[in-house]
Amino acid sequence: MKSRAHHTDSSSIKSISSEDVSTQQHYHGNMCCSAEAKNPAFKRGRQLQQMQMIILPFIPILALIVQTSYEMIEIVSYRMEVTEIENQVTMATDLGKVVTRLQQERSDVAFYIYTNGITLRRNLNDTFFETDLALDNMSSWPDISIRTIQPNNGEVTWLNMSEFRETLQEFRANISTEDSTVPQILRWYTTANAALLEHLTNQIKDANKSGVWRFLLSFKNLLRSIESLDISSVYGINYYGRGYLKPDSYIKYVQHDILGRDLLNGSLHFVPSLKVIYRNITLTMRSYGNITQWSKTIQKNLRREGNVADARSYYESMAYYIDELRKLQRALRSIIRNEVQKVLQSADNMETFGIAILVVVLIVSPIIIILVRNAAATIQLYAINLAHKAKELKREKRKSDSLLFQMLPPTVATQLKQAQTVPAEYYSAVTIFFSDIVGFTEIAAECTPLEVVSFLNAIYRMFDERIECYDVYKIETIGDSYMVASGLPVKNGGSFYFIMASVSSAGRFAIR
Length: 512
What we know:
The chain has helices at residues 2-16, 18-25, 30-38, 43-114, 121-136, 161-173, 182-203, 213-242, 247-270, 273-284, 288-300, 308-407, 410-417, 440-446, 449-467, and strands at residues 144-147, 156-159, 431-437, 473-478, 481-486, 497-503, 509-511. By secondary structure, the chain is of the alpha+beta class. The chain has 2 domains: 69-352; 431-511, Alpha-Beta Plaits, CATH 3.30.70. The strands form 2 sheets. The chain has a 5-stranded mixed beta sheet, with helices on one face. Strands 1-2 form a two-stranded antiparallel ribbon. A hairpin with a 2-residue loop joins strand 4 and strand 5. The relative contact order is 0.10. Keywords: cGMP biosynthesis, Glycoprotein, Lyase, Membrane, Nucleotide-binding, Signal, Transmembrane, Transmembrane helix.
């Protein structure tokens, strides 16, 4: 009886306090470490959760920093490319002026040879001076390779500025109407210009991210167009001055004339705004129609008498036309500069915007991390307080459970804690025990209240210790009355007893 009653009470209590079971499991083996790592009530758990909450916003911040840094690198690279284009345009402008002066010098020298020295030498000196001035204005001189013009010699010679000028001066000193021929003149100037243009076209990139490539390509085509037309004009002067072109000269004239016009059309196609300027040139130029007619006459290459006047007219018209094309070239250079300045301004704005974003991200990032850290600390503090409250609640719950199990039978208390109803039940056989203290009224009258309480407490504590040995349940204790029952609420037999006992002041029982 004793063991069964004790087992029933203990099992009932354990079935209710599930929190205690889980709490005990947290402190066994690896589960204890796992609980500490996840529970913010522990120091380790707080550190781990704080680290997680800081890393979580830091990941997108780091990604934004990396992305912004990558964009900044792209912007800086883009700006360097645009700056390089600006330097290329500056170099092309200076180099283009030299090429222009060499082209004019070639035409003047060729006309001087064709007309047997009719053109005054002073004009050639002026032309030479303008070429030298263009060379002096060069900020830097590129390393160019010029093939030597001696017959049967294809050697490549690299010339710097001083070597080029020495070679040019030597060539000028050897010009004479008797010893010099037009092919020699053409070969030297054409070789020099070709080397300069080759360097220029290699330095200027056709494709870049700035969108200026169309203007650069048009600029290169226009330079080569002027070079080809200028070469064809030299052959034209030869035709009108000598009256006939040899087959080789005729083929070269046709090639350069067609190539020059095609390059010009391509240049106008890449920059449509140049078409308006070119149309105005053709409308305002009086001899433009004559140039077209002269070109058709030369293409027929019919033998005729050489005429210096016709050669001069053709020379002046072509020189004027090529000068107008050079104005078109200067307008294109101005357009390129404006476009480059716009692109540079755009690159500066992009760089400023990128730096601003990067600075904002770098400033805001620690603020966000500090705010997240403070929020995590606040949450952890709240979790600690909540854990303390939970512990206090558990203690109070254990107290209430203990009091409830003292006031009610374990089975009834269990049903009430599980939110179940306790229906009325009929018991056919129970044993009820009543006890009473004989003369309690006289004893209470003679003793002080504290002595009465101590006396009752001593007796009933002894009763409570004794009934734990049997399958009985204390029903009530009122004054000197003590009531226990057996067979309810857990049925344990079919007998029925009703026992009454009296307890004397001497501690003797009287059972009736």
